[in-house]
Design brief:
Blueprint (H helix, E strand, L loop, with lengths): L1 H29 L10 E9 L3 E5 L5 E6 L11 E9 L3 E8 L2 E4 L10 E3 L3 E11 L2 E4 L6 E3 L13 E6 L4 E3 L4 E8 L10 E6 L6 E4 L5 E4 L2 E2 L4 E4 L2 E4 L6 E9 L12 E8 L8 E6 L14 E5 L16
Parallel strand pairs: 1-8, 12-21
Antiparallel strand pairs: 1-4, 2-3, 2-5, 5-6, 5-7, 7-10, 8-9, 11-13, 13-19, 14-15, 14-20, 15-16, 16-17, 18-19, 20-21, 22-23
Length: about 325
Protein backbone atom coordinates (compact mmCIF):
# COMPACT_ATOMS: atom_id res chain seq x y z
CA UNK A 1 0.00 0.00 0.00
CA UNK A 2 2.81 2.39 0.89
CA UNK A 3 4.46 1.70 -2.50
CA UNK A 4 1.23 2.50 -4.42
CA UNK A 5 0.76 5.82 -2.66
CA UNK A 6 4.37 6.75 -3.34
CA UNK A 7 3.93 5.97 -7.04
CA UNK A 8 0.84 8.15 -7.30
CA UNK A 9 2.64 11.08 -5.66
CA UNK A 10 5.59 10.76 -8.08
CA UNK A 11 3.31 10.75 -11.14
CA UNK A 12 1.39 13.79 -9.87
CA UNK A 13 4.59 15.75 -9.37
CA UNK A 14 5.75 14.81 -12.91
CA UNK A 15 2.50 15.98 -14.49
CA UNK A 16 2.65 19.25 -12.59
CA UNK A 17 6.21 19.86 -13.78
CA UNK A 18 5.23 19.17 -17.38
CA UNK A 19 2.37 21.64 -17.11
CA UNK A 20 4.75 24.33 -15.82
CA UNK A 21 7.15 23.69 -18.72
CA UNK A 22 4.38 23.99 -21.31
CA UNK A 23 3.10 27.17 -19.68
CA UNK A 24 6.58 28.69 -19.78
CA UNK A 25 6.95 27.81 -23.47
CA UNK A 26 3.67 29.48 -24.32
CA UNK A 27 4.54 32.61 -22.34
CA UNK A 28 7.95 32.87 -24.00
CA UNK A 29 6.32 32.89 -27.43
CA UNK A 30 3.88 35.70 -26.66
CA UNK A 31 5.47 37.73 -23.91
CA UNK A 32 7.92 40.62 -24.07
CA UNK A 33 10.91 38.30 -24.24
CA UNK A 34 9.50 36.04 -26.98
CA UNK A 35 9.26 36.17 -30.79
CA UNK A 36 6.99 38.89 -32.24
CA UNK A 37 4.08 37.26 -34.12
CA UNK A 38 3.73 37.92 -37.84
CA UNK A 39 1.10 40.34 -39.16
CA UNK A 40 -2.36 38.81 -39.21
CA UNK A 41 -4.19 38.50 -42.52
CA UNK A 42 -7.69 37.47 -43.44
CA UNK A 43 -9.57 40.64 -44.42
CA UNK A 44 -11.77 40.56 -47.50
CA UNK A 45 -13.29 43.58 -49.25
CA UNK A 46 -15.97 43.19 -51.91
CA UNK A 47 -18.71 45.02 -53.78
CA UNK A 48 -20.02 45.59 -57.27
CA UNK A 49 -18.82 47.86 -60.06
CA UNK A 50 -19.75 48.62 -63.65
CA UNK A 51 -16.93 46.58 -65.18
CA UNK A 52 -13.35 47.30 -64.17
CA UNK A 53 -10.08 46.04 -62.68
CA UNK A 54 -9.64 46.51 -58.93
CA UNK A 55 -6.23 46.76 -57.25
CA UNK A 56 -5.16 47.11 -53.61
CA UNK A 57 -1.67 48.48 -52.88
CA UNK A 58 0.31 48.87 -49.66
CA UNK A 59 2.45 51.74 -48.40
CA UNK A 60 5.32 50.58 -50.66
CA UNK A 61 3.07 50.89 -53.73
CA UNK A 62 3.15 47.11 -54.14
CA UNK A 63 0.03 45.28 -55.29
CA UNK A 64 -1.22 43.04 -52.47
CA UNK A 65 -4.46 41.89 -54.15
CA UNK A 66 -6.30 42.45 -57.42
CA UNK A 67 -9.40 41.35 -59.29
CA UNK A 68 -10.74 41.81 -62.82
CA UNK A 69 -14.41 41.63 -63.79
CA UNK A 70 -13.69 40.98 -67.48
CA UNK A 71 -15.70 38.03 -68.75
CA UNK A 72 -18.08 37.89 -65.81
CA UNK A 73 -21.85 38.01 -66.05
CA UNK A 74 -23.36 41.20 -64.56
CA UNK A 75 -26.37 41.22 -62.26
CA UNK A 76 -29.76 42.60 -63.23
CA UNK A 77 -28.50 46.16 -62.78
CA UNK A 78 -25.52 45.59 -65.10
CA UNK A 79 -23.12 45.51 -62.14
CA UNK A 80 -20.22 43.08 -61.74
CA UNK A 81 -19.26 41.44 -58.44
CA UNK A 82 -15.63 41.75 -57.31
CA UNK A 83 -13.67 40.69 -54.24
CA UNK A 84 -10.20 41.18 -52.78
CA UNK A 85 -9.16 38.60 -50.20
CA UNK A 86 -6.42 37.97 -47.64
CA UNK A 87 -5.64 41.66 -47.11
CA UNK A 88 -3.35 42.66 -44.22
CA UNK A 89 -4.68 43.98 -40.91
CA UNK A 90 -3.33 47.18 -39.41
CA UNK A 91 -1.43 48.27 -42.54
CA UNK A 92 -2.42 51.23 -44.69
CA UNK A 93 -4.05 50.31 -47.99
CA UNK A 94 -5.32 52.11 -51.10
CA UNK A 95 -7.86 50.79 -53.58
CA UNK A 96 -7.82 51.70 -57.28
CA UNK A 97 -10.49 51.05 -59.89
CA UNK A 98 -9.22 50.99 -63.50
CA UNK A 99 -11.79 51.29 -66.27
CA UNK A 100 -12.01 52.85 -69.72
CA UNK A 101 -8.30 53.68 -69.63
CA UNK A 102 -8.69 55.78 -66.46
CA UNK A 103 -7.52 55.05 -62.91
CA UNK A 104 -9.88 56.04 -60.08
CA UNK A 105 -8.57 55.97 -56.47
CA UNK A 106 -11.30 55.20 -53.91
CA UNK A 107 -12.03 58.07 -51.50
CA UNK A 108 -14.43 58.10 -48.55
CA UNK A 109 -15.05 59.82 -45.20
CA UNK A 110 -14.90 63.39 -43.93
CA UNK A 111 -12.26 64.62 -44.37
CA UNK A 112 -12.06 62.54 -47.52
CA UNK A 113 -9.12 60.13 -47.81
CA UNK A 114 -8.03 57.23 -49.97
CA UNK A 115 -5.81 55.65 -47.28
CA UNK A 116 -7.12 53.31 -44.58
CA UNK A 117 -6.07 50.41 -42.34
CA UNK A 118 -8.45 47.59 -41.42
CA UNK A 119 -8.68 47.08 -37.64
CA UNK A 120 -9.69 43.41 -37.41
CA UNK A 121 -10.17 40.28 -39.49
CA UNK A 122 -13.48 39.85 -41.24
CA UNK A 123 -15.23 41.05 -44.38
CA UNK A 124 -16.18 44.50 -45.66
CA UNK A 125 -18.91 45.12 -48.23
CA UNK A 126 -18.66 48.47 -50.06
CA UNK A 127 -21.89 48.01 -52.02
CA UNK A 128 -21.79 49.45 -55.52
CA UNK A 129 -18.67 51.49 -56.29
CA UNK A 130 -19.12 54.30 -58.83
CA UNK A 131 -16.31 55.87 -60.87
CA UNK A 132 -16.67 59.47 -61.96
CA UNK A 133 -14.53 62.59 -62.23
CA UNK A 134 -11.21 61.70 -60.63
CA UNK A 135 -12.20 59.15 -57.99
CA UNK A 136 -14.17 56.05 -57.06
CA UNK A 137 -16.89 56.34 -54.40
CA UNK A 138 -18.26 53.39 -52.38
CA UNK A 139 -22.00 53.13 -51.78
CA UNK A 140 -21.25 51.93 -48.23
CA UNK A 141 -18.14 53.54 -46.68
CA UNK A 142 -15.98 50.89 -45.01
CA UNK A 143 -16.46 50.41 -41.27
CA UNK A 144 -13.97 49.04 -38.78
CA UNK A 145 -11.10 50.91 -40.42
CA UNK A 146 -8.74 53.71 -39.45
CA UNK A 147 -8.34 56.40 -42.16
CA UNK A 148 -4.93 57.86 -42.84
CA UNK A 149 -3.71 61.05 -44.56
CA UNK A 150 -4.72 61.14 -48.23
CA UNK A 151 -2.07 60.05 -50.75
CA UNK A 152 -2.82 61.40 -54.25
CA UNK A 153 0.22 59.78 -55.91
CA UNK A 154 -0.48 57.17 -58.58
CA UNK A 155 1.67 54.05 -58.00
CA UNK A 156 3.76 52.93 -60.99
CA UNK A 157 2.42 49.42 -60.43
CA UNK A 158 -1.12 50.64 -61.16
CA UNK A 159 -1.00 53.63 -63.51
CA UNK A 160 -0.61 53.35 -67.30
CA UNK A 161 3.01 53.65 -68.41
CA UNK A 162 4.15 54.41 -71.97
CA UNK A 163 7.77 54.13 -73.12
CA UNK A 164 9.48 54.61 -76.51
CA UNK A 165 12.19 52.05 -77.25
CA UNK A 166 13.33 53.28 -80.68
CA UNK A 167 14.64 55.36 -82.26
CA UNK A 168 16.81 57.03 -79.64
CA UNK A 169 15.83 60.54 -78.66
CA UNK A 170 17.70 63.31 -80.55
CA UNK A 171 19.07 60.81 -83.06
CA UNK A 172 19.81 61.58 -86.71
CA UNK A 173 18.28 59.07 -89.11
CA UNK A 174 19.03 58.48 -92.81
CA UNK A 175 16.51 59.41 -95.45
CA UNK A 176 13.94 56.65 -95.59
CA UNK A 177 11.18 55.13 -93.50
CA UNK A 178 11.15 55.97 -89.80
CA UNK A 179 9.60 53.46 -87.41
CA UNK A 180 8.71 54.35 -83.82
CA UNK A 181 8.45 51.42 -81.43
CA UNK A 182 6.80 51.78 -78.03
CA UNK A 183 5.81 49.63 -75.05
CA UNK A 184 2.91 49.74 -72.59
CA UNK A 185 2.29 48.77 -68.98
CA UNK A 186 -1.10 48.62 -67.23
CA UNK A 187 -2.88 49.63 -70.43
CA UNK A 188 -4.36 47.80 -73.41
CA UNK A 189 -4.91 49.55 -76.74
CA UNK A 190 -8.29 48.61 -78.16
CA UNK A 191 -10.38 49.29 -81.21
CA UNK A 192 -12.61 52.30 -81.86
CA UNK A 193 -14.56 53.49 -78.78
CA UNK A 194 -12.07 51.72 -76.51
CA UNK A 195 -8.87 52.94 -74.83
CA UNK A 196 -6.31 53.61 -77.55
CA UNK A 197 -3.25 55.67 -78.51
CA UNK A 198 -2.98 59.23 -79.81
CA UNK A 199 0.13 60.67 -81.42
CA UNK A 200 0.92 64.16 -82.66
CA UNK A 201 3.38 64.96 -85.46
CA UNK A 202 5.46 68.13 -85.15
CA UNK A 203 3.27 71.18 -84.38
CA UNK A 204 0.04 69.68 -85.69
CA UNK A 205 -2.55 69.83 -82.86
CA UNK A 206 -4.79 67.23 -84.51
CA UNK A 207 -4.17 63.72 -83.14
CA UNK A 208 -3.67 60.53 -85.08
CA UNK A 209 -5.77 57.70 -83.60
CA UNK A 210 -3.94 54.38 -83.30
CA UNK A 211 -6.20 51.32 -82.86
CA UNK A 212 -5.46 47.64 -82.46
CA UNK A 213 -7.51 44.96 -84.13
CA UNK A 214 -7.38 42.71 -87.15
CA UNK A 215 -5.83 44.57 -88.78
CA UNK A 216 -4.95 47.64 -86.75
CA UNK A 217 -5.38 51.06 -88.24
CA UNK A 218 -4.44 54.72 -87.91
CA UNK A 219 -7.16 57.32 -88.41
CA UNK A 220 -6.53 61.02 -89.03
CA UNK A 221 -9.38 63.51 -89.30
CA UNK A 222 -11.89 60.71 -89.74
CA UNK A 223 -10.08 58.84 -92.54
CA UNK A 224 -7.19 56.41 -92.89
CA UNK A 225 -3.92 58.29 -92.45
CA UNK A 226 -1.96 58.74 -95.69
CA UNK A 227 1.46 59.60 -94.29
CA UNK A 228 1.87 56.98 -91.57
CA UNK A 229 1.36 53.21 -91.43
CA UNK A 230 0.23 50.79 -88.71
CA UNK A 231 3.01 48.20 -88.34
CA UNK A 232 2.06 46.24 -85.21
CA UNK A 233 0.38 46.68 -81.84
CA UNK A 234 3.46 48.59 -80.68
CA UNK A 235 4.90 50.22 -83.81
CA UNK A 236 4.10 52.97 -86.33
CA UNK A 237 5.97 53.81 -89.53
CA UNK A 238 6.41 57.13 -91.31
CA UNK A 239 7.28 56.29 -94.95
CA UNK A 240 8.59 59.66 -96.17
CA UNK A 241 9.22 62.39 -93.63
CA UNK A 242 10.90 65.57 -94.82
CA UNK A 243 14.63 65.86 -94.17
CA UNK A 244 14.28 68.13 -91.15
CA UNK A 245 13.98 67.77 -87.37
CA UNK A 246 10.71 66.20 -86.24
CA UNK A 247 8.86 65.76 -82.98
CA UNK A 248 6.36 62.98 -82.28
CA UNK A 249 4.35 62.95 -79.03
CA UNK A 250 2.60 59.73 -78.03
CA UNK A 251 -0.14 59.80 -75.38
CA UNK A 252 -2.63 57.22 -74.16
CA UNK A 253 -6.31 58.03 -74.58
CA UNK A 254 -9.43 56.81 -72.76
CA UNK A 255 -12.80 55.67 -74.10
CA UNK A 256 -13.96 59.29 -74.23
CA UNK A 257 -11.11 59.97 -76.72
CA UNK A 258 -9.39 62.26 -74.21
CA UNK A 259 -5.65 62.21 -73.51
CA UNK A 260 -4.72 60.73 -70.14
CA UNK A 261 -3.28 63.31 -67.75
CA UNK A 262 -0.74 61.32 -65.74
CA UNK A 263 2.86 62.02 -66.69
CA UNK A 264 3.77 58.39 -67.43
CA UNK A 265 1.00 58.11 -70.04
CA UNK A 266 2.78 60.35 -72.55
CA UNK A 267 6.22 60.41 -74.13
CA UNK A 268 7.82 62.75 -76.71
CA UNK A 269 10.64 61.88 -79.09
CA UNK A 270 12.70 64.28 -81.22
CA UNK A 271 14.77 63.11 -84.19
CA UNK A 272 16.23 64.43 -87.44
CA UNK A 273 15.80 62.90 -90.88
CA UNK A 274 18.63 63.37 -93.36
CA UNK A 275 22.34 62.67 -93.72
CA UNK A 276 24.55 63.86 -90.85
CA UNK A 277 26.05 66.51 -93.16
CA UNK A 278 22.65 68.14 -93.48
CA UNK A 279 22.70 68.05 -97.32
CA UNK A 280 19.16 68.13 -98.73
CA UNK A 281 18.10 65.38 -101.15
CA UNK A 282 18.21 66.37 -104.85
CA UNK A 283 17.09 64.89 -108.16
CA UNK A 284 18.63 65.73 -111.57
CA UNK A 285 17.12 64.82 -114.98
CA UNK A 286 19.91 63.71 -117.34
CA UNK A 287 17.84 62.86 -120.44
CA UNK A 288 16.17 64.18 -122.45
CA UNK A 289 17.63 67.66 -122.21
CA UNK A 290 15.57 70.70 -121.31
CA UNK A 291 13.29 71.86 -124.21
CA UNK A 292 14.45 68.97 -126.41
CA UNK A 293 12.31 67.73 -129.32
CA UNK A 294 11.81 63.96 -129.22
CA UNK A 295 10.25 61.64 -131.84
CA UNK A 296 6.71 60.40 -131.45
CA UNK A 297 6.56 57.25 -129.37
CA UNK A 298 7.86 56.09 -125.99
CA UNK A 299 10.03 58.60 -124.15
CA UNK A 300 12.61 57.49 -121.59
CA UNK A 301 13.47 59.92 -118.82
CA UNK A 302 16.75 59.33 -116.98
CA UNK A 303 17.61 60.93 -113.66
CA UNK A 304 20.01 60.73 -110.74
CA UNK A 305 19.54 61.42 -107.02
CA UNK A 306 21.83 62.61 -104.24
CA UNK A 307 21.33 62.02 -100.49
CA UNK A 308 18.22 59.96 -101.21
CA UNK A 309 17.50 56.25 -101.77
CA UNK A 310 14.36 55.19 -103.64
CA UNK A 311 12.69 52.16 -102.09
CA UNK A 312 10.87 49.19 -103.59
CA UNK A 313 7.04 48.97 -103.66
CA UNK A 314 5.79 48.94 -100.09
CA UNK A 315 9.18 50.08 -98.78
CA UNK A 316 9.17 53.85 -98.66
CA UNK A 317 10.21 56.45 -99.65
CA UNK A 318 9.11 56.38 -103.29
CA UNK A 319 9.71 58.90 -106.05
CA UNK A 320 6.75 60.73 -107.56
CA UNK A 321 6.34 62.17 -111.03
CA UNK A 322 4.50 65.46 -111.50
Amino acid sequence: MTFAVHSIVIRSLALAGLALILSACIDSGSGGGGTTPTAQTGVSISGTVSGTRIVAVNTSDQIVAEDDTAGRTPNAQGQFFWSLGNLPIGSNLRLFFITGGNVYPMFFGNPSSNVFAVNAAGSINLGHVTTAGTQATPQIPPSGVTPGPANPNLPPSVGPVLTISSPANNSTLPNGPVSITFALQNFTIGTANQPHLHFYLDSDPVPYHFYNGAPGQIIYQGAAAANVQWQSNTQINFPALAAITHQVRLVLANTADADLANAEATKTIVFSVGTPSGNPPTVTITAPTQNATVPVGPVTVSFTTQFFTIGTPGAEPPAFLS
